[in-house]
């Protein structure tokens, strides 16, 4: 949709463009973490030169409304520091159960399931970091099991995950409960989509996580010993600032 700028206005063109972009940031048209269109597209949309667009983006960068890296510019969540963002448990559905319950977590470097490989954009037979989680009450009830596969992006760009590659033997305990915090620390904005499906004797939750560049980060399949109707919901966790 084309926007209108007025060369005759007292306000410079770049300031008019910046003001209109700021309006889109504030009303959620461009959500936090979303990558902005390229300079050429913005120039066409606003009917201005690419240099004017650059000046507008520079103005928004100075005000902390957008940030730019080698992949382009994206919206930031001004005034919201990491300490104000609730931490998410990893994996989805993780809990210790009853006080005398048990929990087991391990990591391996292996070829993920075909479904996980496809979701992460991995070529067939390519190995990656796979996390397994199990928890239950002392009497064996309330069993929860989850399998998470991480993408190449996650293992490459998140330093804490990369360290697990050499010790992913399937035997050592894996403390990945802060995996989402580590991703945010690496500058990634986390977009989650959780699909919850009722099965005959359980509930299956499939979580897919991607970053602000729409790159997959992880996929988790959680099975819970319970019954529940199907449900899908989405939310976003901004990168640490």
UniProtKB/TrEMBL annotation:
Entries under SUPFAM superfamilies matching the protein: Winged helix' DNA-binding domain
GO BP of this protein: negative regulation of DNA-templated transcription
Residue span(s) of domain HTH gntR-type: 11-80
Coiled coil: none
Region (Disordered): 63-100
Domain of life: Bacteria
Pfam families for this protein: GntR
Transmembrane segments: none
InterPro entries reported for this sequence: Bact_HTH_transcr_reg, Tscrpt_reg_HTH_GntR, WH-like_DNA-bd_sf, WH_DNA-bd_sf
Listed GO MF terms: DNA binding; DNA-binding transcription factor activity
Keywords attached to this entry: DNA-binding, Transcription, Transcription regulation
PANTHER family: GNTR-FAMILY TRANSCRIPTIONAL REGULATOR (PTHR44846:SF17), MANNOSYL-D-GLYCERATE TRANSPORT/METABOLISM SYSTEM REPRESSOR MNGR-RELATED (PTHR44846)
Protein name: GntR family transcriptional regulator
């Amino acid at each position: 949709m084309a926007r209108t700028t007025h060369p005759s206005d007292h306000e410079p063109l770049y300031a008019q463009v910046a003001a209109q972009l700021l309006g889109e940031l504030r009303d959620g048209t461009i959500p936090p973490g979303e990558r902005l269109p390229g300079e050429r597209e913005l120039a066409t949309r606003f009917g201005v030169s690419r240099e004017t667009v650059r000046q507008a983006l520079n103005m928004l960068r100075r005000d902390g409304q957008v940030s730019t890296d080698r992949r382009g510019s994206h919206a930031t969540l001004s005034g919201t520091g990491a300490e104000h963002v609730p931490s998410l448990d990893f994996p989805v559905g993780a809990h210790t159960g009853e006080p005398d319950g048990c929990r087991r977590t391990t990591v391996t470097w292996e070829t993920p399931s075909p479904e996980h490989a496809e979701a992460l954009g991995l070529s067939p037979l390519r190995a990656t970091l796979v996390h397994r989680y199990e928890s239950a009450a002392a009497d064996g009830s309330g069993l929860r099991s989850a399998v998470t596969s991480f993408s190449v992006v996650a293992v490459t760009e998140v330093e804490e995950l990369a360290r697990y590659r050499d010790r992913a033997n399937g035997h050592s305990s894996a403390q990945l409960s802060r995996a989402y915090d580590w991703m945010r620390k690496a500058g990634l904005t986390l977009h989650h989509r959780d699909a919850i499906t009722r099965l005959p004797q359980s509930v299956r939750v499939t979580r897919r996580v991607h970053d602000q560049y729409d790159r997959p980060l992880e996929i988790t399949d959680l099975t819970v010993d319970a019954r529940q109707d199907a449900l899908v919901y989405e939310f976003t966790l901004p990168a640490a600032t």
